[in-house]
Structure formats: structure tokens, C-alpha cells
Amino acid sequence: MSGPARPWPTEIRVRRAAKRMAVSFDTGESFDFPADFLRVMTPSAADRGHEGMVKLEPLAIDKTGVGIRDVTLIGRYAARIAFDDGHETGLYTWDLLHKLGREQASLAARHKALLQK
């Protein structure tokens, strides 16, 4: 017996000039991410340590204005996003992108609060 179907991306579209990335899933959901949001939510071990994203929390860094240079699909499970600030080591799994989309408003609010401290 298998578990519930996992969300699967049907389209990933980068709008470099707008500094945004849109992801549509087979669940019918679509999410539009600002590049700076994706950057502060990086799952990269270089930024988060080897425990990774044990808890879904934004980094306490200001990446306003960062853009997306490139997106590379990794196998059938993730995308590597290369940002124009040189960061390109995080692998954003489909599950993570879906979760980031569903929780984007609360995560963005938490990030804003972190920067105001």
C-alpha cells in the first residue's frame, strides 16, 4: 500500500526581470515566489549546517534585490536555484517548494520580523 500522492510540478517558470519564480503543481495549486524569499529559505547545508531544514524557518539575512540566474532540475526530485549573489548550493525538492508555497505568507512575515530585531 502506498501513501498519498506527493505534489508534482507541472511547470516552473522564471521571470528574471521581475526576480520571481512561479511553480504550478498537479494539485492545481500555483505559487509565485519572489527570488529573495527563495534565497532566505535555502535548504543549503552551507547556510543551515548539516542538520538542514529541521524546522522550516527563514534565515535572518536581508537578500532584498537578489535575482535568479538559473534553475537546474536535479533528477526527478528537486531543482537547484542559482541566485545572482553567487549562492547555488541548495536543492529545493518538490515537497519543499510546495510547502514553501503553502506557507509563504507566514514565512515571509517571520522573515520580516527577524530583520526588524
Description:
It is a single chain. This protein is an alpha+beta fold and 117 residues long. The protein has a single domain (9-50, 65-115), classed as NE0471 N-terminal domain-like, CATH 3.30.2020.30. It is built from four helices and six strands. The strands form two sheets. A three-stranded antiparallel sheet has the order 1-2-3. The protein has a three-stranded antiparallel sheet with strand order 4-5-6. Strand 2 (20-25) and strand 3 form a beta hairpin. The longest helix has 12 residues, at 104-115.
Describe this protein with a few key phrases.
3-stranded antiparallel beta sheet; 4 helices; 117 residues; 26% helix; alpha+beta; 6 strands
Write the layout of secondary structure elements.
Layout: E1 9-15, E2 20-25, E3 30-34, H1 35-40, H2 45-48, E4 68-74, E5 78-83, E6 91-93, H3 94-102, H4 104-115
Antiparallel strand pairs: 1-2, 2-3, 4-5, 5-6
Give a short synopsis of this structure.
By secondary structure, this protein is α+β, with helices and mostly antiparallel strands. It has helices at 35-40, 45-48, 94-102, 104-115; strands spanning 9-15, 20-25, 30-34, 68-74, 78-83, 91-93.
